[in-house]
Amino acid sequence: MDKCRINIAVIEPSAIIYEGLSNILLQEGCSHYNIYHFDNIEEISCEIPTGKIDLVIANPALIKGNIKTFNSQKRTGNSVPWVALIYSFFEKEIVDLFDTVIQITDSPEAITRTIHNLISLKCQCKTESREQLTPRETDVLKHLVQGMSNKEIADQLNISIHTVVSHRKNIVQKTGIKSQSGLTIYAISNNIINIEDYQE
């Protein structure tokens, strides 16, 4: 395994969940992650035997009806850790098949710490402690993840468009996240919004 290049497979059908998780790992973690998206467990069968994948993060819902394939994949890449990405209820028997669990509501720091621990990587990169959003920036973020425009947010919060733009710049600077999907995951992870309101 290349010490400075870690290949992570994310098996997750939801594009918004995948993009948000990727943003968290790339922004909060070190920049040596390559993250690949797969829609189902069968798609990585060609990658694990060749040693291309160092860690797998998977939605347990995709495993539930496919345990035989899951166990086969785990045996094939017996040193590759599997992480369950949990954002709804799953039976303990399914979750116990994984090496560990990350919850969608975990903080970005907790998620990256779990990944770092699993791959036993002595990361030389410094994870910068990020500033907290102000209450007004949090208000703007809530409206951003709803897909509202600057003008709509300005009207809703009774502030100028210029102020909204300024808050948006601060949000990007403080979170390090630019995409709406990434900001949505950030908002969920930090309990700013409820995931139930934004599920597809």
From TrEMBL:
<dbReference type="GO" id="GO:0003677">
    <property type="term" value="F:DNA binding"/>
</dbReference>
<dbReference type="InterPro" id="IPR036388">
    <property type="entry name" value="WH-like_DNA-bd_sf"/>
</dbReference>
<keyword id="KW-0804">Transcription</keyword>
<dbReference type="GO" id="GO:0006355">
    <property type="term" value="P:regulation of DNA-templated transcription"/>
</dbReference>
<dbReference type="InterPro" id="IPR016032">
    <property type="entry name" value="Sig_transdc_resp-reg_C-effctor"/>
</dbReference>
<keyword id="KW-0805">Transcription regulation</keyword>
<keyword id="KW-0238">DNA-binding</keyword>
<feature type="domain" description="HTH luxR-type">
    <location>
        <begin position="126"/>
        <end position="191"/>
    </location>
</feature>
<dbReference type="Pfam" id="PF00196">
    <property type="entry name" value="GerE"/>
</dbReference>
<dbReference type="InterPro" id="IPR000792">
    <property type="entry name" value="Tscrpt_reg_LuxR_C"/>
</dbReference>
<protein>
    <recommendedName>
        <fullName>HTH luxR-type domain-containing protein</fullName>
    </recommendedName>
</protein>
